[in-house]
Structure formats: structure tokens, C-alpha cells
## 1
Amino acid sequence: MSLLLDEIAVAAARLAEVGVDSPRADAELIAAHVHGVGRGELHRVPDADFDPRFWDEVARREAREPLQHITGHAYFRYLDLEVGPGVFVPRPETEVMTGWAITRLTEMDVAEPVVADLGTGSAAIALAIAQEVPRAQVHAVELDPLARTWAERNIASSSTSAPHMAGRVTLHGDDFARALETLARSVDLVISNPPYIPVGASVPPEVGEYDPATALWGGQDGLDAIRVVERVARRLLRPGGLVAVEHGAPQGTSVYWVFAEERGWRDTRNHRDLAGRDRFVTATWPGGPAD
Ligand SMILES: C[S@@+](CC[C@H](N)C(=O)[O-])C[C@H]1O[C@@H](n2cnc3c(N)ncnc32)[C@H](O)[C@@H]1O
């Protein structure tokens, strides 16, 4: 055993005691971040190089600050995104919905598919689509100015590190209820992970104290923003266009009915996340009156 591995074991026990979900992994990732090594290299850090700032960062996690705010990074599909105060930390469940969208876009017989990401936060969904669907043009809409600064930063750094992504994500500082008017009836796919938690629901401290309120709360039943996304998708999609919307695990049936045939939708489907919970709804817009 090395000093660092001993300290990690103590830190993991402390994190477990305060209810952190994955205490050992978090302790290791904090140690790797502080010592500037990969997680698989922790056993190689010499005792003399142990950095006591490890304990400052463990204390932050003990106070339930999200791991991603401590390291400054969130991984989303093949992206390494910068995150911190003021922006929603992208979640693994959203990777599944994004993967669905990427597959559909790749199958579409459209040279340069046009995508709208409503409520882009860190730009996770928008950038993943730009990265994995080479000719897609993505319009990312975000109302919150602070979240937008993180999106700008991630869009800029992806353009530098991957020149093929340059200019393919356009950020719009707007309310998605009225955004992208010039794109009416021309968008191939609308995707959104909107705020969907019912007001008053209890959430872990990492969420309630660190994710911005505009990213979380969706009104009495949690569906306020999802209803707006449904209306906006009807306005934006071209005939045959697709929509994908994330929701909370208990909301699958309610969201299915938001995208009802009576409103003109076809092929409405529920999809599960990797844990087998209802997580997103998709539907096809066959055309016809948008309102
Ligand atoms: C749950 S977060 C999702 C962020 C990102 N798409 C992701 O999956 O990580 C919802 C985002 O929608 C933004 N938002 C909420 N209401 C909005 C509105 N009416 N117009 C534009 N953006 C909105 C929030 O500020 C927040 O960044």
C-alpha cells in the first residue's frame, strides 16, 4: 500500500458516512485530479508526492459539492466538458437520449441535418451531436446568462481541439418558447432535456444546492417546460422531423400523452435509461398545422 491509497481509503469511508453515492470512486477521482495522474496510476504516486490539498477537496465533496465542480470537468459521451457554478452538470441518462438522436440523424437521408437543442446548459447534447454527426448544424438555445458562459466556453474549446466541429453549433441566448423563429418547419430533430422536477420534490444536496434552479423545476407536475417543448417542436419541425424529450422516471405516461395523436404526433414512444427507468419520449411530426 502507498500513503495515497491509505488516504483514499480513509476519505472513501468519510464520504460514505455522509451519504455520497459512489464514495470510493469519488475519492479516487479527487486524488487523481489533485495529483495530476490518471485514476489507474494512483498506486504509482510516491509517498513524498502526496499533496495535502487532497483533504481540502475531499472536505468539499463531504459537504456534498458535486464531484464535477471540484474537478471542473464532466464527461459526456466522447466529450470532456468544463462545468462549475451556474451550469447544470450533464448526466449519464442524457447520454442515452443523445445516442438515440445521433443514430436517427445518421440514418436520415439529409445532407446537413438541422438540430435544435432546447435548454442547452453546458452545450453537452449540442456538442455531442456536432461531434458524432459530421454534417449536422446544431442550434443550441439557453435562457440563463451564466449557463451560457459555460456553453460558450465549451463550444469555443471544442472548435479549437476539433476543427471539424467549428461553426457547427450556434448558441442562441433566448427563451426556447419563442426561439428560432426563422427555422420554422425546417428543423430535422428537436431535442431537449428541460427542467422537469415537480416543485416541492426532494432532491439530493448536490442537485438542490448546486444545479441552477432554472435547470430543475418544472412547475406543479414537473411538465410545464415539456409542454412548451412540445409546442415549439410542432412549430420547428419539418414534415417527418423527430423530437426527443427527457423526463423524470415517474413521468413516462404523462409525457407520452403530451405528444398525443390528437395534437398531430405519430409514433410516440417511451424509452428507458441504462438503469431500466422510463427516461425519454420520442415522436414524429408528420406535418400539418403547427398550432
Ligand atoms: C436540465 S438542464 C439541461 C442542460 C443540458 N441540456 C444537459 O442535458 O446537460 C435544463 C436547461 O434548460 C435551461 N432552460 C430552462 N428553461 C428555459 C427556457 N425557457 N428557455 C431556454 N432555456 C431554458 C436551463 O437554464 C438549463 O440550462
## 2
Amino acid sequence: MTVTITAFERSPDGGKGLARDTRVRWALEEVGQPYQVRLVSFRAMKQPAHLALHPFGSIPTYEEGDLALFESGAIVFHIAELHTGLLPDDPNARARAITWMFAALNTVEPPILELATARLLEGDKPWSKERLPLVEERVRGRLKQLSARLGNADWLDGAFSAGDLMMVSVLLRLRSSGILDEFPNLSAYVARGEARPAYKRAFAAQWAINSAPPTG
Ligand SMILES: N[C@@H](CCC(=O)N[C@@H](CS)C(=O)NCC(=O)O)C(=O)O
């Protein structure tokens, strides 16, 4: 089975692994599924060929035979369903792991993305200074709840699962803000995720592309 994903020809984060192809690469590495990568430019992402795969003109996409998927959550879920290793066999534990995937994408990621938008895209607006603390507080509120639930556990619900893969991926985007360090157990949780050999391979693969000097 040949799997092809798409990734930025050059990620705006310069290889910090924050682009969402990294979570897909990580899932593929966890289950031992080899994959190919098609790199796309921002321009190509908005052209019909890519829009046929991704209606919103973003990355990542995933192709496997005649199946084409978009949305990193749906892709990671598909990989986890297809292979063993990312979702528990027990039906209840499996449902809980899937719940954590949704929680990562639906409940934790939105305020984190809002913070990124406030910092990167709205920093020059006259109201930005007043708004930023409000956005940061919303992130802290979510992290406080997540931190309380994680407690001293290694992972969110028993063994490492696709729920953790998604949650760690989402939290990683916070590192540069310093807010993650206010929650030592979450900081350690993210570090545990990054220490996994599969994450390291995924990170290295995207780093190799994004850290290379520009050509031409
Ligand atoms: N909800 C989507 C978001 C996809 C997304 O925003 N991808 C970013 C990269 S991380 C992107 O392609 N941005 C450029 C663009 O949309 O033009 C997912 O999880 O896959």
C-alpha cells in the first residue's frame, strides 16, 4: 500500500514541526507505515489539482489507493483504525482515546490557534495589547483543566494513544509563548511525546525539508 501525504514546500515555521503534516507523519511512524511526501507551494495549494484533494486548499492531505483524505484529525484517525498501536482494542478505552482526539482538536486547539493569530496576525493592531491578555487567559483556563485531569499520569488515559498524539501536537504550538511552562506536568507530557522515537523520526523528516537553505 502506497501512502502519500502533502506538506509545505517550505513551512512558515522553518521546521519547528508545527505544521500539521508532522502529526500525520508521527502517526505513520508510530504504526510503521512507510509514506511518500508531495511538497506543495502556497500557490499550488490553491490550484484545482490540490483543491480536488483538499477543498480548503491546505495541507496535509493523505492518499492511499483510491482514498483521498484531508483534515489532520480524520487522517490520524484513519491511520489509527487501519493499524494497531494507536487505539486500544477494548471498545470503551478506544472510545475514550477517540474522545481525547476530539478534545485536542475541538476544545484545546481553538484557543491556542486564537493566541497564534493574536500574536502573528493582529500584533500591529491598536487593540492588540488589550486583547492579548484575554486570549492568553483563555489558553491558561484550558490548560489548567487539562493539567488537573492529567495529574501525575504519563498519558491521558492509560497507554499512549492517538488521543495523546493529537494533544501533544496541539500543545507544542504553545511552547514559544512560555505558557506551557506554567504547567509542569503538561510540559513534561509534551516532552514525553517528543521523546518517542516515532515523533523524532517525524520531526527529523520535516526538519530535513524546512531547514535546508533556499534553492535558486
Ligand atoms: N483543520 C485542518 C487545518 C489545516 C491547516 O490549516 N493547515 C495549514 C498548515 S498547518 C495550512 O495549510 N495553511 C495554509 C493555508 O491554508 O493556506 C487540519 O487539521 O488539517
## 3
Amino acid sequence: MTIANDIDFGTPAATSDVDVSVTIDGTSICVPAGTSVMRAAAEAGVAIPKLCATDRLDAFGSCRMCVVDIEGRKGTPASCTTPCEDGMVVNTQTPHVAKIRRGVMELYISDHPLDCLTCPANGDCELQDMAGVVGLREVRYGFDGENHLDAPKDESNPYFTFDASKCIACSRCVRACGEVQGTFALTISGRGFESKVSASAGESFLQSECVSCGACVQACPTSTLQEKTVIELGTPTRKVKTTCAYCGVGCSFTAEMRGNELVRMVPDKSGGANEGHSCVKGRFAWGYASHADRVLSPLVRDRIDEPWREATWDEAIAFAAARLQAIQAEHGVDSIGGITSSRCTNEEVFVVQKMIRAAFGNNNVDTCARVCHSPTGYGLKQTFGTSAGTQDFASVEESDVIVVIGANPTDAHPVFASRMKKRLRQGAELIVIDPRRIDLVHSPHVHASHHLQLLPGTNVAVVNAISHVVVTEGLVDTAFVSERCDPASYDAWESFIRLPENSPEALADVTGVPAELIRSAARVYATAPNAAIYYGLGVTEHSQGSTMVMAIANLAMATGNIGRRGVGVNPLRGQNNVQGACDMGSFPHELAGYRHVSDDTVRHQFEAVWGAELRAEPGLRIPNMLDAATVGAFRAIYIQGEDIAQSDPNTQHVRAALEAMDLVIVQDLFLNETSKFAHVFLPGTSFLEKDGTFTNAERRINRVRPIMPSRTGMSEWEVTCALATAMGYPMHYDSASQIMDEIAELTPTFAGVSFALLDRVGSVQWPCNDATPLGTPIMHEDHFVRGLGNFVTTPYVPTDERTTRKFPLLLTTGRSLTQYNVGAQTRRTANVTWHPEDILDMHESDAELRGVADGTWVEVSSRAGVTSMRVRISDDVPAGVVYTTFHHPVSGANVVTTDNSDWATNCPEYKVTAVEVRPQTRVDVGA
Ligand code: SF4
Ligand code: SF4
Ligand code: SF4
Ligand code: FES
């Protein structure tokens, strides 16, 4: 694709059902009432000059560049702020309006540097384009008077500059920061000639509240706000559409290139998940792909205390295959297994689980979702019949009440958070259930009406108490329950939830949440026309993670909040392809599409296509593999793109298990904590080199397209196929597209999916098959996937992880906006500017009690281990609770997390660890 700007219609589309007819420069067109004259003209193929207008933002009407003549009307109205009226006749190109536009442009140019030829935006500047369009040939006023040509530059942000001398005060940046991003970091200060863009209270961009989403840079019609990479490398010459490889929002981007060099990532307006928005990670933090730390050749060694030696692909694969075969010959078929990665494409994941089932000959495959959203899989399958969020992201725009439980969307799912905040600014009510005061509780123009600041580990008690209020105060949607749900399961649940022990009053001491607050929140949720629940790892990573997912599903069914727009139960998935990795059959008990390995019909279908006999018994989960390794029963593992020695709980146990194995194969971009225990390192590809698909949190299957050849010389799926083949199971595909064809053949929910379809329509949300050829934005509309919705009783069982005199504080963990997961990628970008280390948040009273001062080093100890980090005194956490992130191996927060886990899925209890915090006299961060 060559560079050409997408059509900008000037103002957002109107949504009215009523049409009006207008004539523009002799062309008649029907548009929805409320459509601006500018937009109607653009839809009729007539481009009206503009500077302050763009279709991502509400019309502002400040530049006067878009004036038009309207027959029967006095003056020359701005077409961007004038709505079409039935029968209106508009002339956009009269000599009169042309003269006005030239005069306006002349004024702009008289206070603008005339350095177009050396400007980084030369050829990609709306001011330059418009000067040409209006036919400006000379500037009569000269440049001697007062002007802004020497206004200072702000280069503080690592990714973009602000050159005030080029600013035309159009306010697009200010409006983008407010309307699109919802941060409101920018204002236009001063009036008239003194007008200028200011970040926060006149601070630099870096010091301001700016979160570096890039929306202002994209909105700026000049080079005032400009990506530093464009300044360095020049304007792009070609572009490729692809998908961000960070979080589960799955934003679509256009990678803009010069040759094979990536110049910038621009969020794609047609992207279903992001509609043209982005966050700092996807927009700017892609430099890790070319970081010098990338390993580009395979590495092997006989023992982990030996240095690595470089190998060819053939040598490394032969080495790995021979060892795997020898281990199986000596210790049995079940002595090896593997882990798939939520960071890889569906196609890459599919071939790894296929290799394990067909070439290794067992079902010892698991995925990193084990440590994040496996309870979602279990809980939603039990209640609704399938393991996925129920809505598309756009659905939140129709919610009247939004409940956020154990999630911090502004940091972890920022682009969805911006969409949610927009709805909240329009008046939707917000209920936050979280031990921390996350940003959403109070942010510009957004305030939670209820913050249920529960004690970590008491989620189930809180949601049971909410449901108790719903049932006992007559707030159940009886029509929905009787039509759509299993009556026996409802009756059992109703009798259980009514019990006095589930009342808010009975549970107030346990949860730490005042009973009246719970009652009020329950009434707000249950009586809203449309109420939606969004949840994150604060729900799943508990010993009762699966119970909590089912408790949420019960509540949504009891109140009829399932099966239409604006409602639903929505897990905010962590990694970019965690949904896809689960869909592809990465769990030891399920083949692709969540079908149990013991189902003969399903298994025989796979056997026929794969030409291999498959085992009918589930294999080992990650914790089982690690436990078995420590007793010598599990000897070799293939780990695709996952740093389990840093990301999994109770690090000492993980390391001991890895150390005990005869063979550890790691496939990744960088040598990491896990590769310290590896014998074979197979270099992986960055998302910029991948061809395939990712599936986001709303089940949207997006294309990932290579913008450059693989830097390692092989695609990851080719490496997996080569290893399977070397082990005696021939596996071959001509392309990633062919792998998707096999996925579609074997997975009913993917039956209609192909690269050709995705290339044609952009993206689809599964199920996508004959019944729904363009996908399914909202699930369970007429009936649940399992038929009738199933209520499950959810007794609250306190976690074994309790505070004691020795460990009197509860540690909970989360993510920051600028770092990602264990930080392997983001730590290798300028994002370290904002989050150079993990910090422990602690309440003032706890700090005082321990003599801990803000910014000093502390030792954090639990019964599992000890680590060190600096402390921040913060009232975002209540007394008794401390909080940190786990982005940096040096602090290794998971050293202290325990091996408690969810009863149903073994998902680790990351969110509750009893700890003690002591001032540290020895500052030894490498210890
Ligand atoms: S980068 Fe984003 S947050 Fe920062 S000023 Fe621009 S729009 Fe606002
Ligand atoms: S920085 Fe750009 S978008 Fe903002 S007011 Fe100036 S010219 Fe307009
Ligand atoms: S919100 Fe997630 S998917 Fe979107 S740009 Fe940011 S990290 Fe990437
Ligand atoms: S584009 Fe209409 S007034 Fe600026």
C-alpha cells in the first residue's frame, strides 16, 4: 500500500434515522439529519478546505477556512458547524468564499515559518495542502511585525516534539486530548495573539499529565506536534495495516515505512477495536523489535552452566529433536510437554499445540492464560456455555451503568478506557470494586458514584452480597430468568443467595465495605436499563477466581443484563492474544474451540486431519509439569514466548523445576530469566515480522501483517513444523494462511474465517460461520451458547493466605500504563522514562508504623521469599494493603507471591500475598 491519507470527512457521522436531502455544487445527496454541510460535501465527493475540523472530533468552527455560500442565507457560514437542512442548496466554490479563504490563509502563513522544504511534515501537512488548495500565491503582510516564529520547542517527551512556532492554534490537539483520550492535559491559554497550547499548568509535556497516547500528534494539522522518528527518518513512503502486539484491546495500526524501516505506527481509523486511537505502547514503544539485545541465531548448550554456542537452524532443531526423543525413550511419552504463548499469533500457537499432541504424543500443553484468565474460561463456560466476553467494545457506548471489578483499564487497557470514559462523561454511572483507588475512581470529568474498596481476597463475598440485595429486594428480572435460564439452577442459587450469611451486613466486617454502600451499588446496577460488568485479573487471580467469575455471571443473568448492547460480562484480557491462545486448544483438556479431548467425535475429526492418534486423557497443567519436574517425572519442556521464571508465582519453585529438567527449549526474542535454565534457544520474531492473526478481548480476529522479513530467517511456525518433522511427525504448511484454513476446518466458531475474508472486511468477531458469516459482536442474544443460562451457587471461602503477626499486610499486584507484563519489550524502549523501576505503594499509617519514608528502600518478605524495592506513600491503597507492579526482573515481585491457586484452574493467587515490609539499610538492588 502506498501512502495516501484516508478520507477525512471533517466531522463525525450523524446517527439520526431521519434523512435530509441537500444539493452541494449541483450534486444532490441524502444524509442523516444532523450531518454537517462539510461532511455531506465530502460524502458527495466535494472537498471543502478545512484546518480546525477533523472527523475524529466534534466541530469547533474556529479557523474560518471552510466557509460556504448557502442559497437564501446571509453571510458565509462555516460548513463544519452548519447542519444540513432538507432542501438546502450549498455552493462551496464561489469567488466570494474563495477570496475569504485566501485571506484567512494569508494571515496564517504570515505568522508561520517558511521552511516547508526542510520541515519534517513536508508533503504531509494540512496547512501546506490547504495553502495550495485555496490558491495562496503571496503573503502581503511580511514577517517583520510581532509573530511567533521564535516560540520555543518542547522536546521533553521521548517520542514527539512540540514546536510552538508552527502552531496555528486550531485546538485540534486540545480537543483530541479531551474528547478522544479523556486526559484533558492540554488547554489553549491566552487570547487572540497570545493564544498558545499549554500542557497542564504550563509544564513541559513530560512533566504534565500527558500519557503520551499520541492523539494530539495525530490530530495536529501541522508539524507542531511531530513524531521524533519522522524528524529523524523522513516522511514514510509506504504503509501496511497490522495489529498492536501488547494488550488484549487489539488496536489496529498502519505501520508507515521508508523501505524496510519503520517510521511510525499510526492508529487505524477503521480498526474495529480502537477506531483510530492508541496508547503509548502501541503507538510508540515498538523500538524493541530492532534492539541490539535481539537474538537472531539459534543457541544451544549441553548444560546450563556452559556458555551458549551459536548454531544453524538445522543444528539446533536436530539437537532439540534428538534430546526430546531420547528423554521420551528413557522416561516415557509423558515426560515432555510445552507451553504456548499469548503473545504469538493464532497460527503459531495452533502449530505448537498440534506438535505437542501429535508429535510429542501427549496432551501436556498449557498456556500462560493459566496464570491470568483460566478462571474466565472455566466460569463462563459453566454459566453461559462458552469462554469469552459477551460484547464488542463499542457496546459500552450504550451502557447506563458500568461496573469495573479488579481491573485498571486506564493503565492496562487504555484505549478501551478512553472509550469507557467518554461514555461516563456522557452520564453513565460508574461502580468500581477494587482494593485500590484506581484512576477511574477520580479522573478529569469522571467520578465513580460507588467505590467498593474491599479487602483483597473478598471478591466473592462482595458480589454475593450484591446478589443478595437483588434477590431480597425484588430486583430480579424474572422474565429474563424464566425465559432464558435453567429453572432448577436458579432456584438452588436463589435459596443460597437469600441466606442471611450472604447479606451485606453479615459480610461487612469480612469485606471491609459498608453494607449500605453495597446495597446502594446493587440497586444502581439492578435497576439500570443497561448495566455492564468489565473485570480483570483482580477477579481471576485468586483462590476463588473461578467462583468469582461465576458469581458475576449469576448477577448478570439475575438482572437480565446479558444478550443485548450496553450490557454483558466482559473479561479484559491481558495479553494481545490470550483469547486466541485459549481458542486454539492450548489447554491440556481441550482441543481448539474448547472441546474436551475425551470427546471421541471431536478427537477423531482432528485425528483424521492430522493423521495421528490423539490421547483422550487431559495432560498436565503448568503447575503440574513444574511439580512433576521437581520429582523427576517431567524432564523436558518447550516454552513458546513466555518468561515463566519471572511471570509465574513462587519463582524459587519455578526455577528449581526448570533446573531439574534435562532439556528446556525457549523460543523468544531475548534471552530472559527462563533462558538461564535453557539448553536450546530458538530466536523468535517480533510482531513486525509475523504473518497471522491475533484475537482480542472482544473475540475480534485481527490480521497481523509482516512489514519486514523475519530477522531470524524463519517464521516461528516454520521452526515448530521443523521440530515436529525432526521428531518423526511430518508437519508442513506453505503459509500462515494455510494454517488458518486448518483452524477453520477443525474449529466450528472459526469455520468462516480465512485471511481472504479478513483482508476483505478488516476483522471479525467469532463465532464466524455459515450462520454468522461476518461474525458475532454480541453473544447470547436469543439463547445462551449452552442453551439455558446456568446459575451456580458460589459460597465464599476465605483464602488460606491470611495476615499474621509475622506478615500483617496484604500485597496485591498490577500493571502500569507504560510498562508491559514482565517488561521484556517495554524495558527496551524509551518507556522506561516513566517507569524505570517497580515501586511499592503503601498507606501513610502503615509507613509511619514501620518508620518507612517516601522514596526509601524497603524489604518485602512473605512466606515464599524476599525482595527489595522503593516505597511510595500513597492513599490509593487503604491501610493494611500494599501494591506493586512486576515489570522489572530486578525487583521480581513474584519472588514473594505464593503457590496458592484457584481451586478449579490452578490460576495463581497473585492478588493476595501476606507480607511484611521493613526499612532496608542495605541498598542492594541486584540481590
Ligand atoms: S499525547 Fe495524548 S495525553 Fe498527551 S497531550 Fe497528547 S492527547 Fe493528551
Ligand atoms: S499544536 Fe497543532 S493541533 Fe494543537 S493547536 Fe497547534 S496546530 Fe493545532
Ligand atoms: S491499548 Fe493495548 S492494543 Fe491498543 S495500542 Fe495500547 S497496548 Fe496496544
Ligand atoms: S474547518 Fe470549519 S471553521 Fe475550521
## 4
Amino acid sequence: MSERIAVEQMLALFELARRPAMPHIEDGYLDLLGDEDPTGAHPGQRLMLSSALALIYERLWRPLGGRLLMGATGPGMREERRMAMSMLALSPNDRVLDVACGPGNFTREFARAAGNGLVVGIDASGTMLDVAVRKTERANLAYLRGDACALPFRDGSFDAVCCFAALYLIQEPMQALDEIARVLAPGGRVALLSSCNRGPLPAGATNAVVRSLSGVRIFARDELTRALRDRGLTGIHQHVVGLAQFVSARKRI
Ligand SMILES: C[S@@+](CC[C@H](N)C(=O)[O-])C[C@H]1O[C@@H](n2cnc3c(N)ncnc32)[C@H](O)[C@@H]1O
């Protein structure tokens, strides 16, 4: 299967009204945003558009960020990948969506596991996607520049959806969760990694400082599990490590 076929397969999952008449595969990924930028104005959000960050993200920024969030004894990158794979329980023919995929650091792992299936990485940052495309090694993988809060896919398009280290940066995270729940197929699995409020202060008070300075939102301990339950997901499991939480769930059959 050539990369072009992966893009065609991805386009076949689009809602008809969202299918571009002349798909523009800019630099190896399909760009749905053009001049639109859903990233948000906080410094931490703007940083995701920097080409310098995209270059050091996978080897330096992300491992360091994981340590800061989860502590020295928390999972490293290899363990995070293992956790994502276990939460998503991928099979060789699965269709997998990696929401806010960055430079594809998890997306590539999903593509290795999804064999004859299809893996789509979506991100709003062209600089991140440039790196992702350069590192692509599988023909079952397609990248898309788009907004996590307005996914172009039909309901129930994916067997598994991952969103790691991104909900806390996404401008409207609950809208992104609406979309994630919508595009999951019945029985589909979701895996999230995000922030988790642990201190004596309620999340609202923590956010008044942290979010306004950095753009990173701190979710209350039960905010994401409740949001998934409200969206009809089941089998919800939360694992809190330091200031982070891994959450997995499944859509009812
Ligand atoms: C910290 S990176 C996470 C990358 C990868 N998932 C990981 O775990 O390392 C966060 C990503 O979220 C993306 N992002 C932020 N807001 C977005 C939105 N509204 N739609 C799509 N991607 C968004 C940024 O461009 C950035 O690449």
C-alpha cells in the first residue's frame, strides 16, 4: 500500500461535506486548515507551532515534560508507549486516530501494530507534521492538519483513538472529547493522557495561575472520567501518576 492509498483511505472516512474537492497534500500531509489556526493564544500553545520545538520535541522536550509532570519514578517514553498500546488493544486491521499527534512519536508505533489497518495522525501544527512526515516509515499511515475540535470524519470511523499530552493544550478540550467519542466505533477504545490536579487547591484556583501563565489546563481529578461517562463511554479506568492521569474507556457496542 503506498502513502497515497493511505490518504485515499483516510478521505473515504470523511463526512461527504468535509471532503475537499481538490485534496491538497501539502508536504506529505493533507491540510484542512490553510490560514486557520485553532491553537490558542497562550505561550505554551503558541510554542507548538515553533519549528525549533518540533525538532527537539521527541528526544528532549517530551521526555523532560513527562518527567516534570509524572516525577522521576513515573513512566518514561518507552513505558508510555507500552501503556498506550495496552489501553488501545490494537489489532492488525484496526483503524486508529492519533489526536494532536505532534511529530508522530506515538502514531508510528500504532502504525507498526495496525498492519493492514489505517492510522491517521491529526495535528494543528504544520511544523510538527513536517517532522512526522519525515519520520514516516509505514504505508498505512496518513497525516492531516486539522482541528481536534472539528474532526472531519464520519461517526464511528475508528476502532481506537489516542490523545496523549494534548487535551490540556487544546483550546476547547470538552469539544475535542465530543469529537473523539463521536468518531469512535461501537466497542472502540480510547486512551488519554493529560494533567491532573493533586494539590490542596481546587482545579479552578490552580488554573487561574498555571493556565493563565502557560496555557496548560489542569483538569480536576474526576473531570475527564466524568466527561467520558457523560459521552456514553464505559469501562472507564483512571491511573494517576504525579500531576498526570492516564484514562482509558470504551464505546458501548
Ligand atoms: C505536547 S504535543 C503532544 C504530541 C503527542 N501526542 C505526544 O504525546 O507527545 C500537543 C500537540 O497538540 C496540538 N494541538 C493543540 N491544539 C490543537 C487542536 N485544536 N487541534 C489539533 N491539534 C492541536 C499541538 O499542535 C501539539 O502538536
